[in-house]
Amino acid sequence: MSWYEGWFDSEAYDLVYDHRDESEAARLVDLVEREVAPAADAHILDVGCGRGRHARIFARRGYCVTGLDLSAGAIEEARRRADAAGLDLRFEQGDMRTPYCDGCADGVVNLFTTFGYFETDAENRQALAAMTRALRPGGWFLQDFLNAPHVADTLVPSTTRTVDGVEIHQRRWIEDDRINKEITLTHNDTTDTYHESVRLYTPEELRALYAAVGLRIVDTFGDYDGRPHAPTSPRLLLYARKPPA
Q1: Taking the complete model, does pTM exceed 0.90, yes or no?
Q2: Residue 179 contacts by C-beta under 8 Å, 6 or more apart in sequence?
Q3: Per residue in 107-161, pLDDT tens?
C-alpha cells in the first residue's frame, strides 16, 4: 500500500498538522478571490480536499463547491464538518488521476501540496491532466505547492514536539528528487510510524508540466498573501488558465 493510502485516514495526521487551521485557509481563499476573481456562482472543484477546510470557506462565500479526495475517512469527516456548519456542498471519494468530469468546473484548486505523491512523473502528469480536463474552456486553476529551492535551503533534518501527550518525532531528507518524511508518534509506550514522500518539482519542472497538459500560467505567488514568487519564498502558488475553445 502506498504511503498516502493510509496516512490521511489516520487520527495521527490531525495531530501532526494541527497548526493548519481555517484562518490559514481563509488567507488562501482571499488570494483566489483577489487575483482570480471567480464569478459569484462559479463551480469550484477542490482536488485533494482532505477534510474540507478550504472547500467550506469557498462554500461560505457562496460558490458551488465539490471536494474530491482519495481518502474515505477524510471525505466522511469533511461531510460531517460541512453538515455541522450547515453548508451545502458536495464531497466525493476519487483518485485525482481519474478525470472527475469533462469541463464541468469553472475553477479547480489543488492546495496544501496535494501533488507529487505518485512514484512516477507520468502518474503525476496524469493527475494534472485530469484536473485540467475538469475545467471548462477558459477556466482557471490554482495550485499551492512546495517551493523546491526554499525546501532544500531550509530543511531541518529532525524535530520533536509533544501534542496532547503524544510525542511527535519527524525525520526529513531529500533523495531522488523527493522530499521524504518519517513521522514517529509515541504515547504510553506505543509507537506508530508513518511516511510521506513528495516529488520535489522545481518551478521550471512545473512550468513544463503545465505546458504539456495545456495550461497557461498567468502568475505565480510566493505565499498566501500574494507576494511575488522568489527562490526564498515559503510556497509556490501557480495561477493558470485553460485556453478558450
Answers
A1: yes
A2: 146, 151, 155, 172, 173, 197, 198, 200
A3: 999 999 999 999 999 999 999 999 999 999 999 999 999 999 999 999 999 999 9
